[in-house]
Specification:
The structure is a homodimer.
Chain A: E1 2-3, H1 28-35, E2 39-41, E3 47-49, H2 51-70, E4 74-75, E5 81-83, H3 84-89, E6 102-104, E7 110-113, H4 118-126, E8 131-132, E9 138-147, E10 162-172, H5 175-196, E11 201-204, E12 214-221, E13 227-232, E14 238-240, E15 259-274, H6 278-281, E16 284-286, E17 292-294, E18 296-303, H7 304-315, E19 332-335, H8 344-362, E20 367-370, H9 377-387, E21 391-394, E22 402-406, E23 412-414, H10 416-435, H11 441-449
Parallel strand pairs in A: 1-20, 4-9, 8-16, 19-20, 19-21
Antiparallel strand pairs in A: 2-3, 5-7, 6-7, 9-10, 10-18, 11-12, 12-15, 13-14, 13-15, 15-18, 16-17, 21-22, 22-23
GO cellular component, one term (chains A, B): mitochondrion
Catalytic activity (chains A, B): tRNA(Pro) + L-proline + ATP = L-prolyl-tRNA(Pro) + AMP + diphosphate
Keywords (chains A, B): Aminoacyl-tRNA synthetase, ATP-binding, Ligase, Nucleotide-binding, Protein biosynthesis
Chain lengths: ~450, ~450
């Protein structure tokens, strides 16, 4: 069980009447995460994740991994340091390289602090004996830090210079089988985003510096988004404006004029790469005639720290965090009577009983016990609401009735068995999400509209 | 279930009669891991972990985390990039800095690719409102890549320039409570090393560049170790030679002359740091009089990639890997008859039945099915033995009897129920290790000798 009194959670204390020099515009998620002591700024554009945020991140990692395994992914780890010579071979050091962190080792050899790993993974395959066509498709993924020296790093975890990413690379015998890999990984992405229950938009996107022939982005719609998306309410088409004529008045898919523009935060991106990397780096497989052929590749990224921040950005209120259920740091927060209050003695037994029963239902790790009894229930309830726990249970003046606060809903006074049922229902809902058996409103809508593939 | 035919596992093929230019001396673990396609060298001193090795690493991470939680640890993430200005304040840029990777961002600001995080974590605490003495001890840990531009990077994962580490930092009100934290984390370390069942030596060590007043190292004894350890067979004292007079003839603890020297690979290190970092960086807490006082710190590291390689180095044979049970990539490998062999039809039903029953006992994820039926049983058995699976089951010519190969033991011919019992016993043994209820020979010995604290 987790005790609030032991939890490292350094709430930002701004003295009353203090003149706060606002040096940058903060987004809602950034403001809440910082004020509540979930993240801290390390240096410009880098962030420290503190225990509560780390719990959400670990849940996000597990969820993504589950979906990568379903998509046939095999996990690997590639070094942060990639020799720049590999990037010279693919021509990616020829354009604007101001976003790259470059470093030299003691012998003078130059490395990139990898912003992405196409070169590294392709060179790794090129340096093994060519694998047989029978071993393909090959789908490798990793989870690790990425580095981009952004000109405009901002909004906290939403555009940080150092961030955590899941990147997958697929290898196939041909364009047509590569498209099957693309479809399989895309299905895993859609499953993941559906599990988060945050409405997302999948759009046709530009291939840009990454290259290749086909690309999609996954966006959360938010005013702080840096992309402009065009959506057609007739056929469900959606595209990033950068792939379209900015003067577009009619839908490129159904020619209707029912187009609207929204701002989006890109949280994932997929590319069909073809042989853009395998050719110059010489990554081949042996075809059924025993001859080497260039591998056809795809790459697929999810910004893990970004997706958490963007989900919070979209869902939170000005004062309270709102988590996707599967990412909430704890399922339940339990608050008992204040020390010395007239309820304390009366309710202590009930509180202990509840702790035990809740642990049995949701697991001790999912239970946060706010036993800071030197604080009033009101103060602790405010903290709990700001942190956005899906279920907050108060054992107080109304005992044996309990007060149940479900995130975003009016509080209810309930008997203990009813409260336990609600917790049970929450756990079951999570279970269904994990198994992918819930169809969300969003999924439903997207299915009705038939979205871009 | 995991299928061997789909597993990315690029065995190093060296053509017969090829002249191999041996540019560096390879250690046993490095040679086996490389030849078997578990790791690949990225550039000098950096390594790519491929799927089988990654599974062992993930198990190691989980095991360490479990022990960190028991020691009251809270998980966080600190950026790889630490501003060098923080290291200037603690004086750690004044000595030999040739091992540091330094990088500048677009504004010219300089960063270290952190080789360790004392400065970063201390500065983080210094920049929050001082926490109350009631919130201490505080024990924070993280798992992430570390960077050291070693002059002599060698032996693969044992001394890599980029490696994965678990680092914990503890914060206390005084030297005496800091010693309690030190004891609690040390106990977690001993539990972890006991769970790996690889004999280890805990020695008194030098504090070196890290500073502080007390330090211990955990070593695996190996000829390729870079440290010389002195052990006393009388009283159990053990020390790193670097803290002793090299001419030492008598035990510093019991004055006996029963001293012997061994070579050790350092796999973990603990330090009581005092206020070496909290003073210059201004990290304080509020004492019971409400006044700020410097925090007393400790730091504790386990080289995760290194501990795996070192365990393999110590336990493996020239030809076969030997894993700690809790880190073995799979518990069981199942090999069926060759396609077209006279046994195939007869045994297919048995193989399917076994797959189902094994999955039920050890979990589908822990089962590797080598269904490469185009290969002989002999060839696949050799692969399986080289990979060092704890249990290998062959369904072949002796059906309905099965052949069970337990790692390092003579094969046995057994009936199906007996085989299932052996697998069940293995799973139970792992469970007991996880719960810490097994006392290993090593633990027993150390307890008898009473080792250094």
């Amino acid at each position: 069980m987790n005790k609030a009194s032991r939890l490292f959670w350094p709430v930002l204390v701004t003295p009353k009447n203090a003149v706060v020099k606002q040096t940058e515009q903060l987004s809602r998620s950034q403001k809440l995460l910082t004020e509540l002591g979930l993240i801290k700024s390390g240096s410009n554009g880098t962030y420290q994740l503190l225990p509560i945020a780390q719990r959400a991140l670990d849940k996000c990692i597990n969820l993504v991994q589950q979906n990568m395994q379903i998509a046939g992914g095999q996990k690997i780890s590639l070094p942060v340091l990639t020799p720049t010579q590999l990037w010279k071979k693919t021509g990616r050091l020829e354009g604007d390289i101001s976003e790259f962190y470059m470093v030299r080792d003691r012998s003078g050899k130059q490395f990139l602090m990898s912003p992405t790993h196409e070169e590294a993974v392709t060179a790794m395959l090129a340096s093994t004996a060519p694998i047989s066509y029978r071993q393909l498709p090959l789908r490798l993924y990793q989870i690790g830090p990425k580095f981009r020296d952004e000109l405009k790093s901002r909004f906290g975890l939403m555009r940080a210079k150092e961030f955590l990413m899941k990147d997958m690379y697929t290898f196939d015998v041909s364009e047509s089988t590569a498209k099957e890999s693309y479809a399989a990984v895309s299905a895993a992405y859609e499953r993941f985003f559906a599990q988060l229950e945050v409405p997302y938009v999948k759009v046709q996107a530009a291939t840009g510096i990454m290259g290749g022939s086909l690309s999609h982005e996954y966006h959360y719609v938010s005013a702080v988004g840096e992309d402009t998306l065009l959506q057609c309410s007739q056929c469900g088409y959606a595209g990033n404006l950068e792939v379209l004529d900015t003067e577009t008045q009619t839908c490129p898919s159904c020619q209707s004029t029912s187009l609207s523009q929204v701002r989006g935060v890109e949280v994932a991106h997929t590319f069909l790469l073809g042989d853009k990397y395998s050719k110059p780096l010489g990554a081949t497989y042996l075809n059924n005639a025993g001859k080497p052929d260039a591998l056809t590749m795809g790459c697929f990224g999810i910004g893990l720290t970004r997706v958490i921040a963007a989900a919070l950005e979209v869902q939170s209120t000005e004062q309270q965090l709102r988590w996707p259920k599967l990412l909430a740091p704890y399922d339940v927060c339990l608050i008992g009577a204040k020390q010395g209050s007239k309820e304390q003695l009366k309710t202590e037994q009930l509180e202990l009983q509840l702790l035990e029963q809740l642990s049995a239902i949701c697991g001790a790790q999912e239970l946060l016990h706010d036993e800071r009894k030197e604080l009033t229930i009101g103060k602790r309830l405010m903290d709990a609401k700001r942190l956005g726990h899906p279920l907050i249970i108060v054992v107080g003046a109304k005992a044996p009735k309990l007060e149940l606060h479900m995130c975003g809903e009016e509080p209810q006074e309930l008997e203990l068995p009813e409260v336990l049922r609600m917790v049970q229902a929450h756990v079951e809902h999570k279970q269904q999400l994990l198994q992918g058996t819930i169809k969300t409103k969003e999924q439903d809508l997207q299915q009705r509209l038939g979205h871009v593939h």
